[in-house]
Each structure stands twice: as structure tokens, then as C-alpha cells.
Amino acid sequence: MQTRYTKQIIPLDGWEREETFRFFSTFTQPFFNVHTEVEITPLYRYCKQHGLSVSLAYMHATTQAARASENLLLRIENGQVVRFSGLDLSTTILKDNQQIAFTHFPYQEKLEDFCEEGAEIIASVKKSKKLFNGHQGIDLLHMTTLPWFTFKGMEHAFSIGQEDPGVPKIGYGKLEMRDEKVYLPMSIGLHHALADGYHMHLFLEELGNVIKDYSC
Questions:
Q1: Where are the transmembrane segments (predicted)?
Q2: Taking the complete model, does pTM exceed 0.90, yes or no?
């Protein structure tokens, strides 16, 4: 499958996760899901002050945190573990006809650049008749946003009986305002052959640090 980022094969023999990988690789549904919320007040205020899309901003922050999280860079390809040098994201966009489109957003270092390009991509895809738009390789994060309601849990569709490359699955819910703070419901699914709960913790910790960087 075509990818945008370079990759390095991680030899299984002697790998610190070798036994764990071989164990969970036999599962027909190897993902574990965590449903949580993240306070995004600094990022939210920054977006309001600079006229940026809040939803694009939290997707950018998520991708930035994932790119700094070793286990979220790992994928499974032809039975081998590979580590990508970077990640983009693919998210669902609601088109003008109320159908969804899976849409690639290239990562950019600066939030402002990402939001500018992202707005152009969304405007184009909203009028598209295609289900898939842009790059759809395994060097992505799969995201979806349900902005109409909050949630306490979310599960994703999956196929049984074929190798899953382990692309992380991330869902967002409606923002909640409590005590002058802004909270984002998140559902995060990771392939258990590639990551454990501790690595989920490290990713969320990194995401918190990214968000804090937008504090005034």
C-alpha cells in the first residue's frame, strides 16, 4: 500500500513486545478502546482569538501528539511491524448531501497553515460525490467527529478475518463547557499488539502538553 512517510521494519525476534505482539495478533478483534475527555481550554481560546476552526485544531493537536508517541507510529504490514517517520490524518467530513466522506488532511507543523489548508479541503469535499478523498494509506490516524452530542463511549466498525494494520481510531464528541473550562469527549482505539494502556497514557499526556502550549 502506498504511504507518504518512510518506514522502518522492526524485527520481531528479540523485540520487547514480541510475545505480546504474537499473542494479540491472533485476536479477531485486537483493538482496545478507552473513552475519556480532554480539557482543551487553552487551545479553544487560542482558536477563538485567532479565528481558527476548533475542530481542525484539536485534530491537529491529536496528530502532533501521536507523532511524538512511539507506539502510535507502529503499524502491521504483511505480518511485520513497521515504524513510520510521521503521520497524517483521515477524518470523516459531512458532505452537502448529508453523506460522509473519508478525507485526508496532510500534517503541517503550524496550526494556522493546517487550518487554512484544511478549510480549503473541506469546502472541496463537501461538494464531492466520492467516499474516499485523498491519500488513504496506513500512515494515518483515523478520526471522526460527532459534534451533535456528548458520549461516554463509542465503538468503531471493523472487519473480521483479515490482517488489520493497526491504524488508531479516534472519535470526538460535542464540546462541554463546565466552570469556564472546555472539555472534549474522546474515544481512542489502539491495536493491542502494538500498544497497551500505558502507551495510551503517554499519548494523552503528550496531547495535554501540546494543548498547554497554547496557554496565553
A1: none
A2: yes
- For 47, the enclosing helix (H) or strand (E) is helix 41-50
- C-alpha span between 161 and 86 (Å, rounded): 28
The fold adopted by the segment(s) 7-12+30-212 is Chloramphenicol Acetyltransferase (3.30.559)
The grid cell for 11 is 524485527
| Residue 29 burial (C-beta neighbours within 10 Å; 0-12, 13-18, 19+) | exposed
Query: HSE of 51 in the Cβ direction (CA atoms, 13 Å)?
Result: 2
CB-count burial class (<10 Å; 0-12, 13-18, 19+) for 77:
middle
DSSP secondary structure string for all residues of 137-179:
-SSEEEEEE-TT---S-------SSS------EEEE---EEET
Beta-ladder partners of 80? 77
The b-or-e profile of 198-213 (16+ CB within 10 A means b, else e) is ebbebbbebbeebbee
Distance of alpha carbon 46 from alpha carbon 52, whole angstroms? 8
